[in-house]
Amino acid sequence: MIPEELALLAHRPLLVICDYDGTLAPMAIHPSQAFPQRGAREALRALQEHPERQIVVLTGRRAREVVDFLELPRLRVIGLHGLEWPGRPEPPRDREAIRLIVSRLPQVEGLWLEDKGWTLAVHYRDTPESQQLKAAQLLAAVPLPAGWEAMPGKKVCEYRPIGYGKGWAVEQLALEHPSHHPVFIGDDRTDEEAFAAVLRLGGTAVKVGGGESLAPYRLGNSLEVVELLSLWAQAYD
Asked: What is the pTM of this model?
């Protein structure tokens, strides 16, 4: 069920910012299997063509991965929580910091690493369920190099340079489109900073799925996300 307040936003110019995994795509066992929800491509394409919509995907993935999944080459995708910004110079990669973090990781059954070049994600969804809470605690407590931070997510802990993040990216996008009402839709703990930013800007935060959140509005799953985006993609006078 789409909340009425969200449906009524269709009558305003909108800056729609969406997470990918768990939002535009159902959560998958492995990142390579996170295919978009049925209807997501069509809804995003229609939003691109709407004269009063700006649509952006803001993800912790590399941007190219999401473009390949969605098969929408003109879609604006910002990757690595704002580190990878189309049209801007890439920040330097601190490979020594990533090597140091890897050397300090705990020895836990089922951990696997996703090296994204600029950031490092450590997944523990393959860790036995009885050990997952302990794994999360150990990963959050890893000593980090100066200028780095840990971002816990859904059965993952991501290590990234300080100074970026989805909250920062939302603020940058809102500055680009001051006449559009900003909306952020996401499902993960890493999206909470984006919710906080969009609410500070007077915008709308939408949480997908359960769990505590700053977001005032809820959608049940990625199917409802597609339903909402399709509604906003319709033309209104």
From this structure: 0.90
